Amino acid sequence: MTDTIEAPEVDDPLPAQPAAGGLWAFVRLVAALAAITAVFLAFGLGDLLLVIVALIVMIVLHEFGHFITAKRSGMKVTEFFVGFGPRLWSVRRGETEYGIKAIPAGGYCRIIGMTSAEELHPSDEPRAYRNQAFWKRITVASAGSAMHFLIALVLAFIALSFIGRPDPSVVQVSSYLQISGGTATPAQQGGLKPGDVIVSVNGKKVSSDSSLSSVVHSSVGTPVTLVVDRGGQQETIHVTPIDGRKVIVDGSALAPANGPATGYLGVSLSEGSSRVGPVAAMTGSIGIIREVTAGSVSGIVHLFSPAGISNYAHQVAHPPASVPTGSAAAQAQASSRPESIIGAVRTASQAAQAGALALIEVLISINIFIGVINMLPMLPLDGGHVAIALYERIRTRRGRPMYRADITKMMPAVYAFVAVLLVLVMSSMYLDLTHPAANPFH
To answer: Which superfamily is assigned to 166-274 in CATH?
Structure first.
């Protein structure tokens, strides 16, 4: 999977605005969302809409991680918003305003007193983030990234339990071949259907495409008995292969005219998947998370290494030529540079078209990558707040007031870090718009 770079999470830059609540505002919002959904579906962009919704849910869950841990820790949370810019709708419940803003490019959860530089009313000081116990600050600051790992774990568990992992020993019927003249294939005549998993042929277990083909090819005109798994139920089907020399598909015979008689069922076969039980699924999910996390960390370290920076700068200055989709070169190109949110949405949409398993794999990678990069020890990322809490903990002497880091002294480094991230984000967006990576799923 290609890596994804997104802008750092920051507090809402706009000043506080009056709440935009009320039934009429809510009705307008619902109508607008319904209209947007209708437009996407009308233009056949249902896959893109699904990906956008998945990313928004991911943002909401990230912020919910901060929100719920802050609330449970007794901190004051004044705002919980999805999006940035003008308020479309909001409602106040207690001391917190919840709502949606016009630009769905992120979200934020405003917890008072996140840094020592923030000015607060004296009555709010006891509930400020900066005045809480060390373990509470660490928990709240890292909760957003923890949610990404939890999301990835749940997605991996769902994939292994309900979809399964690709398994070369599982042979599945993907589609019928279209024979010239509209003649029904032996598979159609015998009742074989796309989606069937072929368990055995003539009483012998099918463990690969070749183990099935060897029997079928040698059985021209001779019925073969197939046991298939169809929706969890096993069924027995009898089909008679036909001579491929006499079958024309897309203008060509399935077998050479001067060769021996070779039997065909008239179907395309594909690699199926195997599902596992809950315990094995959980163990496998943890393994997947560990593997993807290691890959993300390795990718980030390489990207910010001298060689990685030099390679990326060369790609920006001399964008690589496009390559055929589905080729090994396409997959290598897709993983050779970071993607912006534009590229991530495109890749996830392509994955959605390829199937549920491919989409889940991409969403797992996106969640893990964001979870890892968000913990880099630099403001305004969550990892910066963790680093400050650790530093203050180390500097605080037993029996003395808690040491507070001077955030103003860190600002030059923060500005430099943000500048680097912005350059990376803008350049990756440029590449994704002008030289998009080839579709790795075709």
So the answer is: PDZ domain (2.30.42.10)
